[in-house]
Amino acid sequence: MINLKTYIRYFVIIFSTILADNAAYAFETSAKQAYLMDFNTGTCLFDKNGEKRMVPSSMTKVMTAYVVFSNLKENNIDLHDEFLVSENAWRTGGTKMFVNLNSKVRVEDLLRGVIVQSGNDASKVLAEGIHGEESIFAESMNEHAKQIGMHRSNFKNASGLPHEEHYSTAKDIAVLAAAIVKDFPEYYNYFSEAEFKYNNIHQYNKNTLLGKKGVDGLKTGHTDAGGFGVVVSAKRDGRRLIAVVNGLNSEKERIREADKLLSYGFSNFFNKKLFSADEEVTVVDVWYGKQNELAAVAAKDIEVVLPKIIGKKNKQTTKVVYNSPIKAPIKKGDIIAQLRIEENNQVLFSTDLVAKEDVAQANILGRATQNIRYYWNKYIKSK
């Protein structure tokens, strides 16, 4: 049972169903696919065909960078390592870093070639340098994608060049961007760089939102099949949002629609921390323990996203779910309950609650006394 303090705090939560329901606020975009996500909570603030298969084009290179960053973190490669430019990589079409045939290029330069210049040649050099063949690198991309929760993506190359079995979704690209920010803060700065010069060729990042309104990444993309797209991340007043738009008709339009989507998110929603890590949420009953009750605390900070203006009333319930009573012994940190917010029997939000302290098992006499008390209350006293 939820205590009074908890119930009052949950009252705020009932308005947080914005999530993928855009009726509360009128917002439209010309993008064929669009997805807006709050970084801290993973909450979806806007969704237009966000889980529909799309051509990710050069936004694929964010996944390429993720795999490279993983190899750097695991010390499989070093930023100062040099990779050989094969003829296969040198001949790669589309946007280029303009690496020279049979030259050796530093990993750090190749990363900038991929992220800033969107070089398809640089992408292939990295893929071949790490895994020997681009097809094997693509398998690694897919393995990492599954690990971070990209459930509707399949990669066949490191550049995003057209392939009928190469696809993703706006939601998956947003999940990927969030993973980059979270998992590799030491490398994320590459996505903020506005220009890079290599081989005496100066090229500019096509993400012209960089440095404006808190935008500090990530990557544009374009193919005839996918149209113009971009995944962007922006941080303002301690909040970070990630926006993905795709299927647009021009560079100018993708930047405009991404900017609109970010403005929509920052203007209409705010983040609310309900509980800090280790803060008591409720008290649960204990069976066969040396104590009869135990505080269930937040396993981590519990934060939700709320609309600044309530557009409608939602019929939601907030509950703490656990098998009562919980049987001792119990160790501090054990998961003993779940905090859930539900609507129409669907779970909108769920997080674990853990034991605040150890609870040792009672001795034989104590357990027997509890059994007697239980049967007395249930079968005799209740009659």
Question: How would you characterize the overall build of this protein?
Answer:
With 383 residues, the chain is an alpha+beta fold. The chain has two domains: 31-271, Beta-lactamase (3-Layer(aba) Sandwich); 279-380, Peptidoglycan synthesis regulatory factor (PBP3), Domain 2, CATH 2.60.410. It is built from nine helices and 17 strands. It has a six-stranded mixed β-sheet, with helices on one face. A five-stranded antiparallel β-sheet has the order 2-1-9-8-7, sandwiched between helices. A two-stranded antiparallel sheet has the order 3-4. β16 and β17 form a beta hairpin. The protein starts with a helix and ends with a helix. Pfam families: PBP5_C, Peptidase_S11. It catalyses: Preferential cleavage: (Ac)2-L-Lys-D-Ala-|-D-Ala. Also transpeptidation of peptidyl-alanyl moieties that are N-acyl substituents of D-alanine. Keywords: Carboxypeptidase, Cell shape, Cell wall biogenesis/degradation, Hydrolase, Peptidoglycan synthesis, Protease, Signal.
